[in-house]
Amino acid sequence: MPRVIFEDDPAGDWTAPGVYRCAPGVHRIPLPLPNDGLRAVNVYALADGDGLTLIDAGWALSRAREVLDAALGQLGAGFGDVRRFLVTHAHRDHYTQAVALRREFGTPVAVGRGEQPSLEALNRPPTGPAHRDRLRRAGAQEVIRQLEALGERSFDPADWGLPDEWIEDGAEIVVDADARDRRVLRAVATPGHTRGHVVFADEAGELLFAGDHVLPRITPSLGLEPKPPASPLAEFLASLELVRNRPDAVLLPAHGPTGMSVHQRVDELIAHHAKRLDATLAAVEAGRSTAYEVAEVLPWTRRDTPLAELDLFNAMLATLETGAHLEVLAERGLVTAREQNGIVHYTS
To answer: Which pLDDT belongs to residue 103?
Structure first.
């Protein structure tokens, strides 16, 4: 069967299965996700001698495995030719397929050092609906009730095995070390979306493998992990400034089309959160006091959907994100937080 490699087209359907060349020695492989939101995750295959290094791995689903297998075949490779997985962060759609393939092929898996607390927590039995305590503090009793009505989701700690290597901030990772034009990736810690999120900067190639830190069309969730930091939005904004202060690069995101200027998109994300902080403050000044109450009056998604019309998962994300914005407003002295009966209330 002839190999079919497409030139990556930022204007095309980024979720369409296939293998897309986005830079010399770099191919994008979109893998399917089991929901109508993100729809796909981009895995990047980098030429590495007679094998490949993969950045991110996808969700451990049979369909995703089939698509990845076929894509590697188009590159003249198979699972046994993958030398390692470099994972931007330990969310299910990036990490679990790497762990599953490691069990079969012994492929080393590496992820940022900051993911250690959450991954260690995931290797212990769950104690209830995810993020229940944070939702309770946000006053989101209705969201908690719906989560508890669903019952416990099936959970297999084997999906969350610890990595073979913790990637340290600033680490240099050499790809295709024997080649004259070898590629050097610099790992840059970018906490916010998760505590241990890292991006991989190919400075010579002017590329940034950005994971979920910088996405071209949406803003990433904040602190959706078992062991979140005290203020995920503050960390995210600091990480955006960190990336903005680096040389500009071509954006290679985990979700969405490639090709955008990293600096341009970071500027847009910073502006978005500034506007969101203003809207959050206005809601508190109008008398809304809990994160859930504030979230109820804010628009969500690019379609400005009310909270009441979001599905349960996105209602949870919206509530937690609102809490993150309120935490930053409190840190800046623009609102005052006080806890009453386990619920945090904010006043201006």
So the answer is: 97
Q: Which amino acid is at 3?
A: R
pLDDT tens-digit readout, 47-86: 999 999 999 999 999 999 999 999 999 999 999 999 999 9
Query: Pairing relation of β-strands 20-23 and 51-55?
Result: unpaired
Q: Which residues contact 2 (CB under 8 A, 6 or more apart)?
A: none
Give me the residue label for tokens 């790809």: 175
Q: Which of 157, 134, 154, 136 is nearest to 145 (CA)?
A: 136
The predicted pLDDT at position 132 comes to 87
pTM of the model: 0.95
Mean pLDDT over 153-177 rounds to 89
Amino acid at 284: V
**Buried-state track 143-181, b at ≥16 Cβ within 10 A, e below 16:** bbeebeeeeeeeeeeebbbbbeebbeeebebebbeeeee
Q: Which of 140, 141, 138, 143 is nearest to 345 (CA)?
A: 138
CB-CB contact of 175 with 53 (8 Å): yes
